[in-house]
Amino acid sequence: MSPLRGRLPRVGWVWACLALCLGVLWGCASSDASRLDALTTPEPDALRERAMRRLSLATAYFEQGQNEVAQQEVRAALQIDPQFAEAYSLLGLIHQRGNATPLAEQSFVQALRLASVGGRPAELAAVQHNHAWFLCQQDRFDEAQAQFNLALSQPLYRQQAKTWMVQGLCQQRAGRVSQARVSWQTSLQLEPGNPITRYQLSLLDWQNANPAQAQATLTPLNASPQATAASLWLGIQLARALAQAQEQQALSLLLAQRFPHSDEAQALTRQKF
Fold first, then answer.
1. What is the pLDDT of residue 112?
2. Which residues have CB under 8 Å from 90's CB, separation 6+?
3. What is the pTM (predicted TM-score) of this model?
């Protein structure tokens, strides 16, 4: 849920304004925007882009855990463009986080209805992705899988790697581990730099007693700035299982330096492997 763009006025409109303003210093510049809105019909694309700016703010607040402010920004986006399906989709996630399940369901139903008639397949896929995750959190796994499948089938959808990744998380939650592995492998092929997918696949191999494969998958993540305390701790355990003392020491030093106050660093200090 997703990256602000502004839009400059049409060139023709600019020239018309300049022509009308000749001889009148800043006359047009002081015109009331609300009067212009009352006398003309804003372009649909301009409305959508204004709404997208507010939705981008809403998404940022949502990611920071500020649900109330995020909901206010979603409301502002929908006041600009009441047909904005992705705004209703984010509203569904906000209600879901607030444990307001009926409101979340209503928001997603409205989002799906609007996205289905909007002629924007990528937007529809994004809504279906979010709805699938909502259904998964409700343990409605078959319904969630159907929504994931619909999202992945939409043309021009460029977030397939993310959907494959989240689908894998849902399949793991449902106990469908073999399916989760396929989803994460597909996600990693589409987006090799995805740290969540790489970590989850490595963890799955580690849990299945395949430390060598797990290490091969995890090493590029731990060698990158995207390494986390969890990924470094997993790397330490893998090196220990494979009797790689130097690798274990190097990763231990990295964990202590980068994440000294993490639970993983404390576990390392106490040697709780």
1. 96
2. 1, 55, 58, 59, 62, 70, 74, 130
3. 0.78
